[in-house]
Amino acid sequence: MSATKIQYVVIRRDDVNDILSGNFSFEMVILNTLRYYPEDLLQFRQNFDYFDYVKEQNDMGVQILFLPIAQLLRKGRVERFKAILAHLKRICVLFVPWELRFKARDFLNALRIEMSLPIYYSIYNDEALVEVQGDSQNFIDHYGFYRLLHRDVKILSKHVSHNCKLPKKLQLKIPHDAHVVDHSFHFKPIVSNVINSLKADNISYISHHDKWATASDIDRQSMLLGSLEELDDIHLEWGMENHLSSRWSLPTLILIFPFHNPVLRKVLERSQNNPIKNILLAEQRDDYIFTLDNEEGLDEEQFKKLSGKILKSQYDILDGIGYLHSTFQFSPVLRFPIRSSILNRMLSMFSLGKRTGILTSHSRYKSILKFGKKLNETFLSRELEDYLSNRDGQILVISDLPIEWMTIKGIPLNFLCDVCRLQDSNIQGLINNYSAFSKFRFKLGSNSVKRTLVIFSGSEQDKTFFNESIKMAQLYREEQGFIIGFASSGQEVSDLLDCHKPVILIFDCHCVFELETLSCYLKLGDTRLYAEDIIVSELYAPVVFLACCNSNPNYDNVNKLHDAFFQVGALSVTGTFLPIDMNKGTFIYLRMLTLLNSANERKASGNWLHFVSFAIRTSVIWEARFKCYKKLKRELTDDEEKVFIELLEKLHRFEDRNEVFHQLLNNGVKLSPEMKLFVKDTNLEFSYYTHYGRPDLIGFRD
């Protein structure tokens, strides 16, 4: 199928795109406008055949390569490009910055030599795409691009027929009228704060776009909910035809909760004459209309112009990135209005830099549930809460808020569902993670445990402190076959990675929050491994698991460790919001590796997100077992063991988790006549973990 894919290449400027600095390059707008461009030549069929075919092939996502200017001009780049395109067998579309408009022609002409496929391009500046006179491969909007594809349809059809065997119903077809194509374009289900009027199979798919602006808040919620349910119904119908349960047929639901973190505002306040910090006071009503404060008393017109530019760019970018992530699975996307100030005071209780708050609380679970209820009240209507409570599917959250704690019918979202996240404050991280998965789909397999590296600190003091964890790991290693390494410096970590080339990298060490820099670092003896050290030394594996305290706090953190791992090549990073119990943290990943060795568990999970979520979620039940050993001083009886296994099976099933959690919260889970487990016994420690990236896209080979 790759022969019908379109390879987009965005040549990036060398400046940094930072949503908080107000320094926006036009390639960010390109991310949003790409929703009007096809990801595949087959999408011009205008019916559900493409949807069915791609769902079966599991080969989705807009193919985008982000390339800095410096790389474009590097010697030998043309030949490398030719080799890449020849291997991929795809047509290529380039977006080139205005500064390179003259060099771009030479580059493209050199690229076209000996290439049988058309190569199209567009030049962009800070305002729009720019026309290049006299070049037949240039386009200035998606209409122009459609016309070029229609013009070259014979060449494209020949290419597809030679390189890709397709069912007859999916033979290439590109309509002549570009405006017709735009009106009834391919199947692109997406829901956002403004509902897109899209059509499939010439039937109006979402038809209430014109009603959106004048609708009441209640009606608008109904429109959004109706769209989500329509999209789910299409996937569920496909699943029924293929004899799949809802969990296997529903796509990952993408929820975007933009948040203006007050810690970032404090960082901006350190710079003089930076009015952008005022924009971080922005709030939105239910109709997505902004209310803005102007604390500095700036000129009204200047303030409106600045705020309009930044806020519109911010949401254009989030909508664009949300759309791109939706293309992996035809996922519905819902962006919520921004609500920050109403949450900041309560969220500050989770600051690691405060002397009071969550760190001094004996009942952390109460604070988490209280904040989760506040998130619910702030964002969800009753109808939307009902929808989430009944949707047996995974969720990607794009937000700086710990949405994993949002309660649904009194249950934390990450107990009810499998949740992964990307943070909206790091636009580059959002792009990097998308780009990584658009290139290939990584899979774990039966040998992944043997290719797992667990790193402890190599200092004698730390070895003593982590003695019990090390003994546990060594005991499990004998049976499971993973690798244990000790490191006291970044260089020693690098040497271990070069030697063993792991697919899963686990750090079991101290992680320290540094208030002065609002950063965390991994502590290996006397060495502090900061985010920049991870980047410089390229320390990563495809899957990273940080069994460390507060490795990625959600309030104070600016230089994030998970972003560093992403930048150098990681696809998924599991980190922690808060300090964890050392031995419990070790046991979770050891049990996770034990399950990973089981083909039945891999099959039951289907992807890494469910697998790692299940391993952490069920830690609450293992707490009961440990409690029995400690209090009763004996092994479980056969009857007690049966109850224990039944509880584990219930946590595998979406429909049973509600019952288990309310038992934990209210009457307790009875494991034996003498033993019950309550939420307070665990302090909801499973909720301290968060899974960054798209672990829902990491499958299993067997």
What is the global morphology?
globular
Helix content: 40-55%
Number of helical segments with 4 or more residues: 31
Beta-strand proportion: 15-25%
Major sheet: size, sense and barrel closure? Answer: 6 strands, mixed
Derived structural class? alpha/beta
Q: What is the first-to-last residue Cα distance?
A: 22 Å
Strand order of the largest sheet: 18-17-19-23-24-27
Mean pLDDT: 81
Low-pLDDT segments, ≥5 res? 180-210
Strands, total number: 28
* Gyration radius, rounded: 26 Å
Descriptive notes:
It is built from 31 helices and 28 strands. It is α/β, with parallel strands linked by helices and 702 residues long. Strands 18-17-19-23-24-27 form a six-stranded mixed beta sheet, with helices on both faces. Strands 2-1-3-4-5 form a five-stranded mixed beta sheet, sandwiched between helices.
Q: Would you summarize the structure shown here?
A:
The protein has 702 residues and is of the alpha/beta class. Helix content is 45%, strand content 16%.
Features:
702 residues; alpha/beta; 31 helices; 28 strands; 16% strand
How are the SSEs ordered, and which strands pair?
Elements: E1 6-12, H1 26-33, H2 49-57, E2 63-68, H3 69-72, H4 77-88, E3 91-97, H5 101-112, E4 119-124, E5 129-130, H6 142-151, H7 153-163, H8 178-183, E6 199-200, E7 203-204, H9 209-212, H10 217-241, H11 246-249, E8 253-257, H12 262-269, H13 276-279, E9 283-284, E10 290-291, H14 300-326, E11 333-335, H15 341-347, H16 364-379, H17 382-390, E12 395-399, E13 407-408, E14 411-412, H18 413-416, E15 419-422, H19 427-439, E16 443-444, E17 452-457, H20 460-465, H21 467-480, E18 483-487, H22 490-500, E19 504-508, E20 510-514, E21 519-524, E22 527-529, H23 531-537, E23 543-546, H24 561-568, E24 572-576, H25 582-596, H26 599-605, H27 608-617, H28 619-632, H29 638-652, H30 654-665, E25 669-672, E26 675-677, H31 679-682, E27 689-693, E28 699-700
Parallel strand pairs: 1-2, 1-3, 3-4, 8-11, 8-12, 12-15, 16-28, 17-18, 17-19, 19-23, 23-24
Antiparallel strand pairs: 4-5, 6-7, 9-10, 13-14, 20-21, 21-22, 24-27, 25-26
